[in-house]
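[Solved] Which block belongs to which protein?

Original post:
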Amino acid sequence: MFLLREGCRYLSGRVRSTWPAAGGGTGRHGRLFRVSLLGESVRLSMDHLEELRRLPSSDSYRQLTEFDAAYCIDLDRFWKRLAPLMDAAAFPVNPITGGSPFPDERRAWTKGPVARWLSVQEVALVAGHLNRTSYDVLVSHIRAVLEAGSSSYVDDEWVAEVETLLAEPYRELVDFYKAAAIHGQCTIFWAA
């Protein structure tokens, strides 16, 4: 089944038009993404972020999923590959795993980097680094990242496939953080 984004919500039974759905099943895609969590981010004002942080988790999650699509980026399962690539490329702040737990340390949705928020200053740092880091720099680390996370042989075909699949999500991430920095916004990333 394919999913289509409407705002930050998903409608089942329709094909996503910007890039192929990944993960699940057998074959290469099954090896590419062994996690079922779909990742997305929203950009918002610091005041709005603080309001969401004060809400109970179920209310903040509901509000996050109702944001207009113009303020969201859907990374699907690609976040699981992009995050270690950005670490390998020495990003000063990883836009997926960096920042602070959302809504805070005590009430974090889950353990680990599954719900994180970045301040306006961190967003500006991320946007600048993304703008200066070409996709070629990022993908030069694909083989090493795949080998670190796989018990099977990483062949050239697999590396090329991951490189192709991540190109569009990376470009969208660059555009998303550029817009957030221009508008003085912070971001929240979550995977659910």
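(Second protein starts here: sequence line, then its structure tokens.)
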Amino acid sequence: MNLLCVLISFALVKAFVAVLDIRDKQVIITNRHIELAIDFMPKIIKRIVLGPSSMKEMAFMLAVPEYTDDDNKSRMVLYQIQMQTEIMMSTNIHIQIPEIIQDNFDGNIDLSVYGNKRRIITREATKTLIRGATRDNDRDFEDFFAMCRLIGLFRSIKYPELYMIKAETDKTETCILTDRNGKIIRYRSCTDDRIWELKPNDDLIQPLSDQL
């Protein structure tokens, strides 16, 4: 009986490692897709923000590929494949799947390195979109809910340890963001035509433009 338990445990460990290996490879492959499509990233991100993806899905695709969704661990690889698909759909460019040679990597791949690399690219692209929406009146973000999602994504990229899992707007056109710890962050477009982060009592903290 003890031997059977040991064998089962060993099999489970092997299966778990195999899943991690697939995820590592997909994160690396997706990063290479992003690097090759860097000039198209604002367009790609706009498509994602205006699409049906949840805030959590956007976070794992664009901001925190190294983190794990404890509610749905099985989707971690799918988030990366979804990001690759979004790149292809937005650019109509066929990107050859990069070959990942296992011997080029040691046994302990630090996904946070790839997360940081991804955020460098996606942060700049997201800032470009925010500036376009606030300065140039990009009509795709006239709906404040779409703008709220874009702000939430930006915060997920800027503060990855507190990535956003929910975005909504209320009847006062206030953007209400919820991070992974349940903390609420709010933004509102004010009379000076700028979007401000708000305190719980509605006092102004800082304009969004100063946070970029």
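Accepted answer:
You had them paired correctly. Confirming on the second one: Residues 1-20 have pLDDT under 50 and may be disordered.
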